[in-house]
Amino acid sequence: MTKVGILGLGAYLPSKKLTNFDLEKMVETSDEWIRTRTGIQERRIASHEKTSDLASKAAHQALRNAKIPADKIDLIIVATISPDSNFPSMACKVQKAIKARKAAAFDVSAACSGYLYALTTAKQFIQTGLYKRALVIAAEHITGLIDWKDRDTCVLFGDGAGACVLGPVKSGGITADFLQAFGDHGDMMRVVSEGARSPFHPGKTAYTKLPYIAMQGQELFKIAVNSMADAIKKVIKKAKIKKQDIDCIVPHQANDRIITAIAKKLNIPKEKIFININKYGNMSAASIAVALYEAQKSKKIKKGDNVVLVAFGAGLVSAANVIKW
Q1: Does the active-site annotation cover 248?
Q2: Is the predicted pLDDT of residue 204 greater than 70, yes or no?
Q3: Helical H runs in 7-89?
Q4: Domain boundaries, the chain
Q5: Active site residue 282
Q6: Rounded to two decimals, what is the model's pTM?
Q7: Half-sphere exposure of 64 (CA within 13 A, CB side)
């Protein structure tokens, strides 16, 4: 079948920074408490930008770096759990913004694993020959879902977007994929609605209160470590490579302690893992997309490298890909 690889990468981060010291003034927490438990020092906040704005800006950069005009894109997939609205899709909004009028467009919802789910989905369309080039974007304005009085969750998240252009390549490319779901454990991380939004529901709260993220952090920690380590084992087996053949791992940036535990569990040097959680926090689907862009830009990834992407998120879902760069 057609080999499919990344032709260009892009990213966009809002300019507004929220540091741990800023959070000290908002909730009962401290810079030291946040850093030692998560590795996060600051995160970006999209104050006046919507998810579709972040996605479109990352898309523009990916197209420039791929040197491919928007009218040559056949498919747009946006991974997000924080869309501007239920519809139109963020992919359709991006299509309009970048003028990719020939492209089919739809969204994917797989939380923190969304970028990898979208990559794998787009790859299939190209391999079968239905489309030639795809624009895959992960964008989140997840801070709009945060309860800023909950110190356990408000310190974790940030906003941003990353994108890539996929297309046929002569060698290498995405050599293996792995997707898995654990729906029985979905309640461990979810968006809670504080009341039915119905004209038949008594009281004004039905119209004014917003949903917010709730999670069982300690329970999720163990599942995240085990599922991501397992995903790496399974995807490299599919790619027919061994642990020692991995040159760089780009994991979902949820918690530095999770990343450390995965490295220890697999006996892989942490130096092989790209980490930028200190700057951006957990950007859900956008985390790996932005990290991959920065890993290439900083030359942590070089031509010929075996790169492993791995994620875990709400659903619960996990995913992994191997890319021969």
Answers
A1: no
A2: no
A3: 20-24, 31-38, 51-66
A4: 4-171, 176-324
A5: yes
A6: 0.93
A7: 9
